Amino acid sequence: QVQLVESGGGLAQPGGSLRLSCAASGFTFSMYGMMWVRQAPGKGLEWVSGIYSDGVESYYADSVKGRFTMSRDNAKNKLYLQMNNLKPEDKTLYYCAKGTSQGTATEYDYWGQGTQVTVSS
Questions:
Q1: Secondary-structure percent of the chain, ordered helix, strand, coil, rounded to 5
Q2: What are the tens digits of pLDDT across the range 21-69?
Q3: What is the CA radius of gyration of the chain?
Q4: How far apart are CA 53 and CA 73, in angstroms?
Q5: How many CB atoms lie within 10 A of CB 89?
Q6: SS3 of 57, please?
């Protein structure tokens, strides 16, 4: 079955950086778009970024554009999110999510258990 395991979360200072990773299994990783989504307390899932199956193009929410960079390694079934210039409002759980098809960067059907990102001085 589909498994998505996130890692790399932790504590960073405002302006600092973290790199999230996601190990995917149970499906043909290279055939699906992938996303990162996040959930603030008491709110629904918020799309953060998405990347097509070939990894050529990635897309970002306005709130993270210019600060976060998403990438993937199809040979290793891995997804990454480089988070720079972190802000206190970035603090929340981050989830790796599997896209519903090859050509989507926004629609997803599975997500992992999440990794916590905390931004505090």
A1: 5, 50, 45
A2: 999 999 999 999 999 999 977 888 899 999 999 999 999 999 999 999 9
A3: 13
A4: 10
A5: 10
A6: coil
Q: What is the pLDDT of residues 76-102, one digit of tens each?
A: 999 999 999 999 999 999 999 999 988
Report in angstroms the alpha-carbon separations of 12 from 28, 47, 117: 33, 21, 8
C-beta of residue 29 within 8 angstroms of C-beta of residue 99: no
The label of the residue with tokens 């890692």 reads 7
Q: Alpha carbon of 29 to those of 13, 45, 62, 100: distances in Å?
A: 33, 22, 26, 11
> Is the CB of residue 115 less than 8 Å from the CB of residue 94?
yes
The sheet carrying 68-73 orders its strands as: 3-7, 18-25, 78-83, 68-73
Cα 110 to chain centroid, rounded = 12
